[in-house]
Amino acid sequence: MGSEPGTIGKVGTSDKPGVAAMPSVRTVSFDAPWSWLAAGWRDLCRVPQVSLFYGAIFAIVAGLLIAGLTQFGWQSLSLALTGGFLLVGPMLGVGLYEVSHRLETGEPVRLADVLFVGTRSPGQLAFMGVLLLIVFFVWIEIALLMFMLFFGGVALPPAESFISTLLFTPRGLGLLIVGTVAGAVLAGTVFALSAVSVPLLMVRELDVITAATTSVRAVLKNPRAMALWAAIIAAAMAFGVATAFVGLVVAFPLIGHATWHAFRDLIDLDSGV
Question: For residue 22, is it within any domain?
Fold first, then answer.
């Protein structure tokens, strides 16, 4: 799947000296995401101690954030915060991409190597992380503004009555519909920009714009497969959240490893356009 191991570190060429070529995008079959998921599962099983440790950290951080909201009486923001995790997820999975990279090339996998990943474009990768973090905070602000729009200046409802308010009142249903549409548009945009751009910045000397453009090209060239992939990611994360974050211990590393294989399948690193 994808190009042969050992070619990851190569940088393409272009007609302009000193400028890396934009990688070519492959066409994949509609059911390709299932093979990415299977490959991700194999990676997880090969180094479960590293992968599950990574997933446990993610689950613990998510649980602590929700506990913090509860402490301040802001439990009603939990749904928006959970959705926001999907926006920054591509950056949080960098260590998992490195694990799959090392397994692919036959390198040893040590926890220190995946916690302190060396990349080809560290500055640009950090910039991408900052951009995704900004989007995350923008989403939280949008969620708060929508709540104010539908409920006025009243305090956030307690967690025990939030779901019933959301589902069985006109204002709640309006917030649910508008919030879902707004969240879907934002999440879809971020998915298109980051589907393969983060692993690409790990292995190629590119700028954020080129990496994001390549990611969008991959999505547009494979709309059905990428829609299925987005649905699988959302379902896996929803499962993790529905199990009080315990499921994230497995779901997050599984999706992280699979994302690497999606990147390798979609992007041809040996040629440029």
Answer: no
| Spatial separation of the C-alpha atoms in residues 98 and 179, rounded to whole Å | 35
pLDDT tens-digit map of 232-262? 999 998 898 888 889 999 999 999 999 999 9
CB 25 within 8 A of CB 267: yes
| pTM tops 0.90 | no
Lookup: tokens for 59: 């689950």
Q: How many domains would you assign to the chain?
A: 1
Task: Tell me the per-residue pLDDT of 204-221, one tens digit each, with 9 for 90 and over.
Answer: 888 999 999 999 999 999
Token duo for residue 141: 């602000």
Residue 161 is part of which domain span? Answer: 38-108+117-272
Asked whether residue 2 is assigned to any structural domain, the reply reads no
Q: What is the 3-state secondary structure (H, E, C) of the chain?
A: CCCCCCCCCCCCCCCCCCCCCCEEECCCCCCHHHHHHHHHHHHHHHCHHHHHHHHHHHHHHHHHHHHHHHHCCCHHHHHHHHHHHHHHHHHHCHHHHHHHHHHHHCCCCCHHHHHCCCCCCHHHHHHHHHHHHHHHHHHHHHHHHHHHHHHCCCCCCCHHHHHHHHHHCHHHHHHHHHHHHHHHHHHHHHHHHHCCHHHHHHHCCCCHHHHHHHHHHHHHHCHHHHHHHHHHHHHHHHHHHHCCCCCHHHHHHHHHHHHHHHHHHHEEEEEEC
Residue 244's alpha-carbon distances to 59, 60, 71, in angstroms, are 9, 10, 17
- Name which of 9-18, 63-72, 260-269 the model is least confident about: 9-18
> Is 125 a residue whose pLDDT tops 70?
yes
